[in-house]
């Protein structure tokens, strides 16, 4: 963070680095590509320099091939040099040692509009997310759910996030600090990893709060492991975001586009299933029911027992920020990403944002113009 401020270079993280840089650091733009923040994705589309510090970024090819830029890679394992992009300059070093040397040898850069634009855009993105989380009525939705997770999560909690829309939503809505940890599938592909990750967390760090956050599709693959949680008295908080659809796959099929196929799920009463396995089960159907359900869940794990909250949610999609580009020939555009190839659409930015309840969001070009970035 100190180096970012000194050199006026914003930070973009990979998803697996969630929490390493505090989410409330003003120049932490979040993660990029599909499970990304709007600001990170837009800045990756215009940057003229990327300094990759110890980052094994599995979706780099999609992100890095959008345009030409200088690429500096800092890596302790020389076999990884050039793995994701052609090197302009490679530094064989431990990440922390490199950052310290940069702090010692660099000169402070005068505050500039580019860095300020990054901070302002990030602040507005966070305000948009908070607005969504602060809904207080209606059927249960994922944004108010994550507000409750943030409310009761302990400062050193460990989050095991299963694959699906929770990958995107946890990267966006969890407000993490460096003492907390997140574990998930690095390629966003291993459905069913939520409960095993949470059990590993609780067995390794029994004094820390452990979470399993999973969609109904992923949870149904491994829900029998609640028996293991019960058998070994593992007080894990299990959250099932139940919307009867494989949302992550549905979004991919919509984006291609192709006919929706093989994504519908049969609903189940996961709270009753949990109770049958000796685990406390709670069902939530409305936003208003969330606070009491989480209070009950925390009381249960503090008593030394696992708990499951089955949240019956609407199947809404979070805004696909990868469908935004900044500016071409003076015009903002919406795009569609089809098999890794970006295609301009005829839709306007305004129509796109309205569709995803994001009318207040502004394109990056707004912040560049405001701060005289050319």
UniProtKB/TrEMBL annotation:
Keyword annotations of the record: Pyruvate, Thiamine pyrophosphate
Thiamine pyrophosphate enzyme central domain mapped to chain residues: 2-101
Domain Thiamine pyrophosphate enzyme TPP-binding, residue spans: 162-311
PROSITE patterns, per database record: TPP_ENZYMES
Cell division listed as a keyword: no
Keyword match Translocase: no
GO molecular function: catalytic activity; magnesium ion binding; thiamine pyrophosphate binding
Signal peptide limits: none
Entry similarity comment: Belongs to the TPP enzyme family.
Protein name: Pyruvate oxidase
Source organism per UniProt: Lactobacillus selangorensis
């Amino acid at each position: 963070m100190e180096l970012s401020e000194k050199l006026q270079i914003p930070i973009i993280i990979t998803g697996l680095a969630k929490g390493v840089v505090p989410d409330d650091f003003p120049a932490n733009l979040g993660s990029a590509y599909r499970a990304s923040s709007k600001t990170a994705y837009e800045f990756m589309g215009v940057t003229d320099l990327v300094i990759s510090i110890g980052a094994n970024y599995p979706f780099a090819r999609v992100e890095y091939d959008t345009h030409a830029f200088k690429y500096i890679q800092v890596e302790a394992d020389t076999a990884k040099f050039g793995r994701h992009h052609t090197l302009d300059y490679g530094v064989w070093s431990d990440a922390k040692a490199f950052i310290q040397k940069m702090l010692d040898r660099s000169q402070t850069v005068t505050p500039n509009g580019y860095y300020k634009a990054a901070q302002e855009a990030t602040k507005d993105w966070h305000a948009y997310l908070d607005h969504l989380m602060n809904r207080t009525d209606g059927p249960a939705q994922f944004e108010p759910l994550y507000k409750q997770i943030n409310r009761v999560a302990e400062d050193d909690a460990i989050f095991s996030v299963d694959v699906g829309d929770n990958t995107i939503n946890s990267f966006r809505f969890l407000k993490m600090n460096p003492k907390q940890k997140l574990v998930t599938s690095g390629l966003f592909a291993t459905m069913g990893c939520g409960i095993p990750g949470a059990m590993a967390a609780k067995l390794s760090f029994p004094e820390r709060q452990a979470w399993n956050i999973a969609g109904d599709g992923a949870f149904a693959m491994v829900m029998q492991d609640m028996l293991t949680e019960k058998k070994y008295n593992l007080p894990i908080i299990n959250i099932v975001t139940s919307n009867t659809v494989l949302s992550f796959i549905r979004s991919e099929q919509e984006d291609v586009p192709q006919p929706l196929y093989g994504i519908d799920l049969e609903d189940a009463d996961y709270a009753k299933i949990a109770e049958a396995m000796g685990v406390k089960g709670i069902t939530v159907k409305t936003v208003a029911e969330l606070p009491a359900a989480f209070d009950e869940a925390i009381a249960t794990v503090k008593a030394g027992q696992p708990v499951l909250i089955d949240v019956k949610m609407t199947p809404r999609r979070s805004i696909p920020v990868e469908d935004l580009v900044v500016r071409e020939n003076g015009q903002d555009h919406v795009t569609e990403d089809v098999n890794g190839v970006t295609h301009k659409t005829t839709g306007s930015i305004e129509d796109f944002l309205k569709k995803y309840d994001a009318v207040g969001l502004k394109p990056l070009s707004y912040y560049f113009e405001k701060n005289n970035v050319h």
